[in-house]
Specification:
single chain; 474 residues; five-stranded mixed beta sheet; two-stranded antiparallel ribbon; 11 strands; Cytochrome p450; 46% helix
């Protein structure tokens, strides 16, 4: 017998407003997990306008992801709000338009371009290394998250625009000051049942509008500079040297890629590349700070692969860091920075006995099953070895591991993110010991489009038995 949205269990709300006032957006992902424990892996949230289906079952999430964009799209409300914020690219495009955007972005992030780009990644790692040497000498606690955000935006800007922005060596007033206002506001607007921001011009709305304006000014400058370079060097039309040039060349022949779409793709890469990778690194460092045995295993691998080098200097060495990649996967299983995705059905369908009508909103939560013993052995234990072939656990269902999504909309930036993560973690633990200064229990998960950590501070020390790390403190 088919089950419709009205047949599903769920938390009891109030008349008319349902559970609207029960939702706590900064911890929404945790609320979903608690409700899934109570009501099962498919349940209902009663909301004022339309009830929402919530799914944490891996097989259903895989089915929904596989049926995009023909059967499901990102929620139309989300798309409207993202476009208001200037995002109109591969992230929120649909149908044939999405396929065009996807092809362009994927080509710009392929292995060939990663190899070409790697020397710049090495130079950015070196700047981060120099900064952390100074922090280790001073011994002062600091927010490592801010360094990671600056590092990833430097990487993203170079990869997308071929521009050396170097925020790591700037003191303030950098691009992150604007970017950090965008994602939390977008998340709040997407989940607010009533679009108050269109009625009341709050300080938050004004700051958001200014941030979007400044980011778009920067992207427009990069676009103007890239057009000028292409005009001066026609060879770039045949062999673009970075993503912005590839997109601009394609926009000359592809009618569906206009100025708005060019800006949207570049803005998407800039924001997503900076935010998700930085927060993943931040969570990894937080987890590893209290796991000395895993740190020792990381250092053992690094000593064997890097020998006396302080960081990865050859692209081919990345593939040899199997244990660090396993640690990355385990950290993503525990702390996926995109644990929630909001979908909308665009045709009637049935999945595993559940009847889904066109227009139905479906929230998928991607961590609940990953931390369930049904899908992973000792699921709540941090065990990187489970990702190594020689020590694979008896229960290891990768359908329940979707930190980069799945199906046709699988994140095209996954390999670049892993590349950045390996290089930062390798440099950090090859040279330093990390002490968590903020009590671990004080560090909270905050949902703001991506799942970030509340601010915490660390102290770096030169690794015991390691080489001296001379630095210029002037």
């Amino acid at each position: 017998m088919l089950k419709g949205i009205k047949d599903l269990p769920g938390p009891k709300g109030l008349p008319l407003v349902g559970t609207m006032f029960d939702l706590d957006l900064p911890i929404l992902h945790q609320q979903i997990e608690q409700w899934a424990d109570t009501y099962g892996d498919v349940f209902r949230l009663d909301l004022p306008i339309k009830n929402q289906m919530v799914v944490t079952r891996p097989s259903m999430i895989q089915a929904i992801s596989a049926d995009r964009p023909e059967g499901f799209v990102r929620a139309k409300k989300m798309n409207t709000i993202l476009q208001e914020g200037g995002v109109h690219g591969v992230f929120n495009a649909e149908g044939e338009e999405w396929r065009i955007h996807r092809s362009l972005v994927t080509k710009g992030l392929d292995v060939k371009h990663q190899k070409q780009f790697f020397p710049h990644l090495v130079s950015t790692i070196e700047r981060l290394f120099e900064k952390w040497k100074k922090d280790a000498v001073s011994g002062e606690p600091f927010s490592i998250q801010q360094d990671l955000l600056r590092f990833t935006v430097d990487v993203s800007v170079w990869l997308a625009f071929g521009y050396e922005i170097n925020t790591l060596e700037q003191k303030g007033g950098v691009i992150q000051d604007h970017m950090e206002k965008i994602f939390p506001t977008l998340f709040k607007r997407i989940n607010d049942p009533i679009p108050w921001y269109r009625i009341i011009r709050s300080r938050e709305s004004r700051e958001f509008d200014n941030a979007v304006l400044e980011i778009n000014k920067l992207v427009d400058k990069f676009i103007t500079d890239a057009k000028s370079k292409i005009e001066q060097d026609p060879e770039l039309k045949e062999h673009p040297s970075n993503l912005i040039q590839a997109i601009l060349v394609a926009s000359e022949t592809e009618s569906k890629i206009g100025p708005k779409e060019v800006r949207g793709d570049l803005l998407t890469l800039l924001m997503a590349g900076e935010d998700t990778t930085a927060h993943t690194l931040n969570w990894m460092i937080f987890e590893l700070a209290s796991l000395p045995d895993i740190q020792r295993s990381i250092r053992k691998e690094l000593d064997e692969v890097l020998l006396n080098d302080e960081y990865i200097k050859e692209y081919t060495l990345n593939s040899k860091l199997k244990y660090i990649e396993a640690v990355t996967n385990e950290s993503l299983r525990f702390r996926p920075v995109a644990p929630i995705i909001l979908h909308e059905a665009i045709r009637d369908t049935v999945i595993e006995g559940y009847e889904i009508k066109s227009g139905q909103m479906i929230l998928t939560q991607h961590r609940h099953s990953a931390l369930n013993d049904k899908y992973f052995t000792n699921a709540k234990s941090f065990q990187p070895e489970r990702w190594l072939k020689e020590s694979r656990c008896p229960v290891h269902n990768t359908d329940a591991f979707t930190p980069f999504g799945s199906g046709p909309r699988y994140c095209p930036g996954r390999n670049l993110a892993i590349l950045e993560i390996k290089n930062v973690i390798a440099m950090l633990f090859k040279n330093f010991e990390v002490e968590l200064v903020t009590p671990a229990n004080d560090v909270k998960e905050i949902m703001a489009f991506t799942m970030m950590a509340s601010e915490f501070k660390v102290r770096l020390k030169k690794k015991k038995g390691g080489r001296n790390l001379p630095t210029n403190l002037n």
